[in-house]
Amino acid sequence: MSGTLVLVRHGQSEWNLKNLFTGWRDVDLTEKGHGEAKAAGALLKARGTTFDIAFTSVLMRAQKTCQHILDAVGQGELKTERDLALNERDYGDLAGLNKDDARAKWGEEQVHIWRRSYDVQPPGGESLRDTGARVWPYYMHVIQPHVLRGETVLVAAHGNSLRALIMALDGLKPEEVVKLELGTGVPIVYRLNADSTVASKEILE
């Protein structure tokens, strides 16, 4: 018996639009972001997908994306677990800064290292490895058991928390995961084998 895991990065946020480091700052979706989330739900509905449970972060941009998807598939009241383990990577002192201003202050190379390295932390913040250190146990102990019982599970979260999860699912190396780009509002559908390995992966665009 195999289950299905659907991962969706939240739709465009107000700070994505403004080119700001967001992290744990709780900013809303843009109009485009709401549309992306609703479109993701429409894609899943067209496939006949329904969910047994949903998981999201404690940040509103992921929660609203999750709700749009559930509304679209006719499950607006579905049980949804919210946990900071699924939060975006914490950018620490960079949060709220314009990315171009950060480059002017610290230099292009240093900002690129903070944004794209696997294990280098920005000042006061988390590396991608740190993000994974909270995502992976939460997935293993809380989310994965539902999938292995044959359920269909939605996870609406963030670029870096999902990159960390995909790293584990796809067996990516650190140098591979830092190149991974996730589109906003794009569902990624995994089917898992009974032993938790990946049977198939499909990106819905």
UniProtKB/TrEMBL annotation:
Domain of life: Bacteria
Binding site for substrate: 9-16, 22-23, 61, 88-91, 99, 115-116, 159-160
SMART domains: PGAM
One GO MF term attached to the UniProt entry: phosphoglycerate mutase activity
Reactions catalysed: (2R)-2-phosphoglycerate = (2R)-3-phosphoglycerate
Site (Transition state stabilizer): 158
UniProt keyword Isomerase present: yes
GO biological process: gluconeogenesis; glycolytic process
Family: Belongs to the phosphoglycerate mutase family. BPG-dependent PGAM subfamily.
Physiological role: Catalyzes the interconversion of 2-phosphoglycerate and 3-phosphoglycerate.
Name of the protein: 2,3-bisphosphoglycerate-dependent phosphoglycerate mutase
Organism in which the protein naturally occurs: Nitratireductor arenosus
Gene encoding the protein: gpmA
